[in-house]
Amino acid sequence: MGVHRALVIAAHPDDIECFAGGTIALLTRGGTDVVYALATGGEGGCNDLTVPTAEVIAKRKREQERAAQLLGVEAVEWISEPGGMTLPDGEVTPSLDLRLALVRLIRLHRPDLVISFDPTCMTKGSYVNHADHRAIGESALAAVWPAAANPRYHVELLDEGLAPHVTRELWLMLSPTANHPVDISTCLEAKSAALAAHRSQFTGDDAAVWARVRRDAELDGASSRFELAELFHRVQINAPDAGSGGPAARVPLDGP
Ligand SMILES: [Zn+2]
User: pLDDT under 70 in the chain at which residues?
Assistant: First the structure.
């Protein structure tokens, strides 16, 4: 499968490196243009209430942008509310406004592949999935199909020159029904370095980050044919190019 462009949609800084960092490294090494879309500035990752929220967000944004850079990512898009602030950490909901923001990004970047969270994941082992992950995953799914593809959805985007777009591949992180292991044995170092760039979350203990990355990859590898893996639920969308097929809908998979 040729993936020219990928859009990765998540809730917090470090989500993508945690659950898909090796896969992102593989994609960019293979020539795929990867863009991130993040819903929040991750202020929930700082328990010290004496630190101003804006300061936490600014730091976590810088860490995320550095991590993305290490993985060869083209750009990080921060989903903003009117006024320019990211959505409040812990308060992401699958609203129509969020869907509109994601449809705008999908139509703008026209990805072949969207990676996001599986909204059906409530727990994995001892981990209780964050409600923001479920909410952004639900919004991403609704945005990929049918909203981004249907010219009658969010018609105001047509006035912005953003034609409908069908994303052919959807890979869901943290899925209880994972069916698509990715061999990340050649990318463990890149993933570890990118995750360690989130220094506010990992207190600069790089050895602990590397051990955690290896352990997670071994666990996911144990349920796949690879020794070291990241797991996704893969959905291949087999649909006509867009909605009811107006001129704006006829955008080839390779881009406008
Ligand atoms: Zn998160």
Answer: 1, 241-256
